[in-house]
Write a structure and sequence with these properties.
The chain is globular. Helix 1 runs parallel beside helix 9 and helix 6 packs antiparallel against helix 9. The two termini are 26 Å apart. By secondary structure, the protein is of the alpha+beta class. Its EC number is 3.1.1.3. GO terms for molecular function: triacylglycerol lipase activity. This is triacylglycerol lipase. InterPro entries: Acyl_Trfase/lysoPLipase (IPR016035), PLPL (IPR033562), PNPLA_dom (IPR002641).
Length: 284
Amino acid sequence: MTSDVLRLALDARSGSLGPFSPSFNIQDLLLKNLEKVLPEDAHLKVNGKLHISLTRVHDGKNVIISEFESKEDLLQALLASAFVPVFSGILPPKFRGIRYMDGGFSDNLPAIDENTITVSPFCGESDICPRDDSSQLFHINVANTSIELSRHNIYRIARILFPPKPEVLASMCKQGFDDTLRFLHRNNLINCDRCLAVQSTFIISKPEDEDDYDLECHDCKRQQEEALLSNMPEKVVTIFQEAIDSANKGIVDWLFKRKGKKLLSVLSSPYKIPGKFMFASFTK
């Protein structure tokens, strides 16, 4: 999955107009990857568990879908939830006969119940989000998402549609990993197996001997300390490193890293862009 997402970002960067190049079709790429990753009974496995946020085009209302009739039904809901006008195409896709687009336009962080954990790529008031060094007093609320007004968030917003280099993507992935660890540690959710088992029985059976759950458990403390020092899974790190190495090698990349990079890029654009449009015209 990580390699598929990275490949998608690299494809978006490769065009003359970036992700707006006519030959780059985000909806087709998403569909191909989802068909490859999801099993045939995916809809049965996620029914009642996965909640997809959609925005109904004709009235702008938010709709949450959690029941799916088939894998195709699930795929159509996912594609509709990822549709951003102009970036993804002109006409929003239909789901069950009605046109929908990204749920972020109406409710970017819907809360299903009181146990919902909100996750955001922007520094703000979400449960899991970046914690920037500079503390800002000003926040804005965009589609139910609190966003701090800071230069870091401005940079992140600018990168929503234009993916950065693999090195930066790797750094963002690592930051998300660290943000999640901090949330788990802050909410005392990193515990040893014994304490987790005891915690899970509190609500169900309410055992009389509640002393079994030791708030000062040494195993829990050790596990928390180890978690805070841990890194991303080695497989994920390897995939990012391979993408970085691939992006940095080759004579064309070597040439474009030199002083003439911008000049060559500008001079070649008038020749590359018409070719892209012609290619897209015949392939779409």
